[in-house]
Amino acid sequence: MQEKTTVNTDFEVRSLDTICVNESGLEHRWYHNLKYLLVGLLFGIVFVKSEVISWFRIQEMFRLQSFHMYGIIGSAIAVGMLSVWLIKRFKIKTIYGEPIVFHSKSFNKGQVYGGLLFGFGWALTGACPGPLFAQIGTGATVVVITLLSAIAGTWIYGLVRERLPH
């Protein structure tokens, strides 16, 4: 009689979804995080100067009245594709010498639902998660409500994640 064993496939299943795990075992002093603050500040300045945080630009995009936002998003996609290709082609490592690994992802209907929900929220609020902080920083304090809603949505997703189509 063969003994029935159960195999824990949790790792295999989770590697296919969109949860990101920092597998780095490196520990750094607190001031190593200042580089992220600097990059975030520069990113915010770029958002403001390129008008990515402008509610009017976002509305123009969703009403198909202007190419401005599509050009910026298309440029970001092109830069991302080129960067991933270069990382894979030349086996580029992190600045600490760790390998950069890209895991294959499979397409599923949950991504369509999530993308639609994200797009509706973006169109209604005039904000997506990246520029929220830049919008608040420029004085649009009403966007704090959108930020708190985004945090609440992320928290709720964490609660119901296992019951959603992945």
TrEMBL record:
Keywords: Membrane, Transmembrane, Transmembrane helix. It comes from the Bacteria. It holds the Pfam family DUF6691. The chain crosses the membrane at residues 36-56, 68-87, 112-134, 140-160. InterPro entries: DUF6691. The keyword Membrane applies. This is Uncharacterized protein. The lineage of its organism: Bacteria, Pseudomonadati, Bacteroidota, Chitinophagia, Chitinophagales.
